[in-house]
TrEMBL record:
The lineage of its organism: Bacteria, Bacillati, Bacillota, Bacilli, Bacillales. Keywords: ATP-binding, Cell cycle, Cell division, Cell shape, Cell wall biogenesis/degradation, Cytoplasm, Ligase, Nucleotide-binding, Peptidoglycan synthesis. ATP binds at G108, S109, N110, G111, K112, T113, S114. The keyword Ligase applies. One of its GO terms (molecular function) is ligase activity. Involved in cell wall formation. Catalyzes the final step in the synthesis of UDP-N-acetylmuramoyl-pentapeptide, the precursor of murein. Residues 23-95 form the Mur ligase N-terminal catalytic domain. Pathway: Cell wall biogenesis; peptidoglycan biosynthesis. This is UDP-N-acetylmuramoyl-tripeptide--D-alanyl-D-alanine ligase. Residues 106-280 form the Mur ligase central domain. The gene is murF.
Amino acid sequence: MEQLTIQTLASWFGVTIEDTREVRRVATDSRDENGDGLFVPIIGARVDGHDFIDKAIEQGAIVTFWEEGRERPEGIIVIPVPSPLKALQEAAARYLAEIDPLVVAITGSNGKTSTKDMVAVVLEEKFKTHKTAGNFNSDVGLPLTVLRMPRDTEVAVLEMGMNGFGQIELLSNIAKPDVAFVTNIGESHGEQVGGRQGIAKAKLEIKAGLKDEGILIVDADEPLLSGQGFRVGYADDADGKIEVVETTFDASIFRYDGELFELKVLGAHQIRNAAYAIACGRQFGLDHAMIQRGLDRVKLTTMRMEKQMFGDAHLINDAYNASPTSMIAAIETVKSLVGFSRRVLVLGDMYELGADEQTQHVKVGHAITAPVTDVLLIGDKAKWIAEGISDASVNVMHVGTVEEAKPLLGSYQRPQTVILLKASRGLALERLVQ
């Protein structure tokens, strides 16, 4: 926060406080350094932030939202509110409206973080840009992202996550986007919203706060998004059509709407994410040269199709998270790479898939065919992937834990070999190469 005084902050909630000190930071964790900051005590299922106000004061907080009716703490300015969480969200909406940047909102089952990174780096070619840090994409994380935005921000790129209905709608109404993305519809959190149709409905809540003149951009290859907004993808009738020219370990060459682009990031699904960035850049007036310069600077968040060497082998570390859709996309990337005689998939459990989790794992197995040569499956659920592998030329092994898998990797550290690591976050598959 910049140039926001305690007096102004309090006035947003109908409270008169004659204190003109500037509020320079904001935190919901009392352990965070928060000099001259606002502390927001979130009330969770197990922990109540109000209990840690003394620690927040030690860390430098000078003002706090405070649930009405509680005994007020000493040593800090108190702004009484019915709900500190809702006050945080309201403050973010007011601060965002005051700065009035262009807003890009991004949601989707997979690819939203990579799309966020690509959109931001492309738009930085023309605008002062602020983006969601890490995966601060929740009802707490998005408001914190907004309130940490410098006042000279021209474009805010905000990621939006969900695990149920109503959450994206809330975030969209805070953000009031000029451009909103639904990157795709996968399977994660399907059990909370009734499967993929429910996921599509929940993701499309992003339209709730879209400005009247705003634009919705969606995956053209997803039938559940048919008829929605500006469609980007490989489909012949896409509004923004993608055509892959070549994919190597070092770069992907593709055409978007007939124009040639290069992306030094692996994956056909990453090409789609880059296409979203191109569509957004064009919407905001960037030309081809500016967009390509931005794409040349793309560096994705760690463990998202991250390229590295593993002995003499080439390693693709995509272990940050996994769903059936993203896992199949990564497998197809490995199959498409040129210059490798051995292609190894190291795949682990996928979580939060609901009642049809076995079917979804088997579906991944159906995608595993030559030129894949070896598959190492890790975890109790991953064994179902083997049930879907029908190509007898693929060598398949299964172990229960990451620790059991470690000794087996040595045989893969050879020239002309590419290895993919992918599983849900809970498995922490990156431990294999640490």
